Amino acid sequence: MLAAVKRWLRGPAAALADVTGLSPARGRASGRAIVAMYHRVLPRDDADFRAAHPGMVVSLEAFRMHLDEYRAHYDVVTFGELVRRAAAGPLTGRPLLALTFDDGWIDTYALAAPEIAARGLTATVFVAKCFVESAARGEAFASVAQLRELQAAGWEIGSHTWSHRELQGVAGAELEQEVVGSKGWIEDALGTPVASFAYPRGKYDAASSALVRRTYDAAVTVESGYFVPECDRALVPRIGIHDAMTSTRARLRWRLAGLP
Predict the structure, then answer these.
(1) How many Å apart are CA 107 and CA 144, to the nearest integer?
(2) Which end of the chain is more exposed for a tag (fewer CB within 10 A), N or C?
């Protein structure tokens, strides 16, 4: 019942924002940064869009609107650049927004990346070794060659582990392979240092987060929240973006403002 009431309230509130120009994102994001989390970007008439988990997909049509909103109101950077700026001093000026994509789906390369490039923006993609290698078998993930293209276009490539395994309870050599081994594999494949990490499905424990902290400059979870100077760099929260909650400009602004 409560969820239904929230959905009903969000409609009028979003409509009001469209009419009045109210932007909670711009009004409340000052002094903190947003790490936006995406998975898949697909046309609404694509069968994969209809089949995808609702929390894992954004329509290409809505994504174009998202990028226009980001470009108008934020400095869009990679996750690594956001971390470096925060380390250098207070975050001042226009709010920062880091675009992040989990898993390295082929549509990140084929559909999202051209739209990002057309607007002069950049992003971070977190890839798992198992997914990258599956591209050679025809699976729907970006290949090493395609990741190199993204890298050449200014994207940051981060690790999403070796096998996309949830890290809770993983220990010893297996944990080392997932966290450290994946970093080395990407660095060998792409010829560049890897400084950022994303926990598969956001799962971690004290041992895995400690190893991530020793291995990477920073890492993201799926927990909802903002990047603030005092946040734990190994457990950075993000704002999840999916189609149902961000299909209009006003709903996107509401989502970035941290409203349900």
Answers:
(1) 15
(2) N
| pLDDT of the chain, 260 residues: tens digit per residue | 445 444 444 554 444 444 333 344 443 445 689 999 999 999 999 999 999 988 899 999 999 999 999 999 999 999 999 999 999 988 888 999 999 999 999 999 999 999 999 999 999 999 999 999 999 999 999 999 999 999 999 999 999 999 999 999 999 999 999 999 999 999 999 999 999 999 999 999 999 999 999 999 999 999 999 999 889 999 999 999 999 899 999 999 999 997 66
* Record: fold of 31-245: TIM Barrel (3.20.20)
Residue 210 DSSP SS3: helix
Residue 71 CA to residue 91 CA, distance in Å, equals: 18
State the CB neighbour count (10 A cutoff) for residue 7: 12
In angstroms, the CA 42 to CA 51 distance is 11
Residue 194: alpha-carbon gap to chain centroid = 16
- Please tell me the number of Cα atoms within 13 Å of 110 on its side-chain side: 10
Half-sphere exposure of 89 (CA within 13 A, CB side): 2
